[in-house]
Design a protein that fits this description.
215 residues; alpha/beta; Rossmann fold; five-stranded parallel sheet; 11% strand; ATP binding
Length: 215
């Protein structure tokens, strides 16, 4: 069983993915880390994030152990990821990695959950469960702003909002695998929902599709 979760940054899809993985005993892959790792490899090599050939080389050389780097959770990594994710050869290089994980999750997982931008539309269009988690840009910016402050980092709300809107625009406008909800996905707008309600909504949907029991 495959659960595909897509959506923009700071919408809550990562939290939902982790809770569902724990509840169902599924393996979890945050596919955004793949693109963050590629972007940071390019930056570390003093490369140009707009250089398709260099970014594709970095993607082909990516190792699973590189996904555990704490630096991948930084805003710099997020911005780098958004840029290399728009490069078709990079997406092609990472496609097999994601599909292999989805269809052959590490033992003893009973299934796989992939969290990203194009899982239900491109990576796993055959996923039994498709969720699109979203929220208004303003709400997402407030969440990211609070997260940065809680981590002891300096931040300006207006700048956080601007960065999110720029990233949304890149994700939606890219020619290859743009950020869109699959036609058969459940769209969950978390703007006025807490994590418990989002989780319950997803579980109810899974149950309604007769592919899993309530955890």
């Amino acid at each position: 069983m495959i659960i595909a979760i897509d959506g923009p940054a700071a919408a809550g899809k990562g939290t939902l993915a982790r809770r569902l993985a724990e509840a169902y005993g599924f393996a979890l892959l945050d596919t955004g880390l793949l693109y963050r790792a590629v972007g940071m490899k390019v930056v570390a090599a003093d490369g140009d994030l707009d250089d398709e050939e260099g970014a594709a080389r970095a993607a082909r050389a990516l190792r699973p152990d590189e996904l555990s780097n704490p630096a991948l959770r930084s805003d710099a990594a997020a911005q780098a990821a958004s840029k290399v994710a728009a490069i078709a050869p990079v997406r092609a290089a990472l496609l097999d990695f994601q599909r292999t994980f989805a269809h052959q999750p590490p033992s003893p997982a009973k299934g796989a959950i992939l969290d990203g931008r194009d899982i239900a539309t491109t990576v796993c269009p055959d996923a039994e469960i498709k969720l699109f988690v979203t929220a208004s840009a303003e709400i997402r910016a407030k969440r990211r702003y609070k997260e940065l402050l809680d981590r002891g980092l300096s931040a300006i709300y207006a700048r956080v909002l601007e960065d999110l809107e720029e990233r949304d625009a890149r994700d939606k406008a890219r020619a290859v695998s743009p950020l869109v909800a699959a036609p058969d996905a459940l769209v969950i707008d978390t703007s006025a929902m807490d994590a418990d309600r989002v989780f319950a909504t997803a579980v109810d949907f899974i149950k309604s599709r007769n592919v899993g029991e309530r955890p």
